[in-house]
Amino acid sequence: MHMIEKFLAYMEECGWKIEMKEKREDLPETVKNRYEHVPEIWSDLITTVQSMISSDETTWFLCKDDYDPQKDKAFQWNEWELLSLEGIENDAEWESEIKEFWNQHLPMILSVKDGYSYYAISMENGSIVKGSEPEFEECEWVADSFEDFMKKIMNRELQL
User: Fold this and answer.
1) How far apart are CA 44 and CA 139, in angstroms?
2) How far is the C-alpha of 61 from the C-alpha of 67, rounded, in Å?
3) Residues 73-100: what's their mean pLDDT?
4) Minimal CA–CA distance to 127: which of 148, 108, 109, 110?
5) What angle is formed at CA 109 by the lines to CA 90 and CA 141, rounded to 5 degrees?
6) What angle do CA 101, 106, 107 make, to 5 degrees?
7) Residue 69's CB: how many other CB atoms inside 10 A?
8) Which domains, from first to last, does the chain contain?
9) Is the pLDDT of residue 130 over 90?
10) Which of 148, 145, 70, 83 is nearest to 112 (CA)?
11) HEC profile for the chain?
């Protein structure tokens, strides 16, 4: 857990508001039921952190409670998928492509800073990708793994 503690300390130094859980919890069912091969270090982070939000409140890590569809919040964890599906106008092939993309990409950070964007974990190889509107499903690689992602942020190679 050393890497996570170092990362959280760095993010707090950068002005992020971080609230910890009293005790570690299990991964949410929405994640367990839809995604396989979830990186353990990411799982450790989201099940121990209650919330993690940028100082300007425009970017946030999705934590365990964010994946609960019953919780009342401005954005659902899969909001960008829902927006994509909303705009397809009964095109079954396009709908299938969008769902398949999101079945292979687990959103972990959402942002409204410069339009809607996200960071997600690729289920194919554990890499981290970034995408944004208007074509959420057109994404780009940013890190080989979640651990690499955290290192790039702490080395100031990547800014959220």
Assistant:
1) 25
2) 11
3) 90
4) 148
5) 80
6) 105
7) 11
8) 2-154 (3.40.1580)
9) yes
10) 83
11) CHHHHHHHHHHHHCCCEEEECCCCCCCCHHHHHHCCCCCHHHHHHHHHEEEEECCCCCEEECCHHHHCCCCCCCCCCCHHHHHHHHCCCCCHHHHHHHHHHHHCEEEEEEECECECEEEEEECCCCCEEEEECCCCCCEEEEECCHHHHHHHHHCCCCCC
Give the span between the Cα atoms of 11 and 109, in whole angstroms. 14
State pLDDT tens for residues 1-36: 589 999 999 999 999 999 999 998 899 889 999 998
Q: Is residue 154 within 8 Å of 10, Cβ to Cβ? A: yes
What is the rounded distance in angstroms from the CA atom of residue 109 to the CA atom of residue 7?
15
Q: What is the pTM of this model?
A: 0.93
**Measured distance CA(43)–CA(136) in Å, rounded:** 24
Residue 153, amino acid: I
**Measured CA angle at 113 (ends 110, 114), to 5 deg:** 110
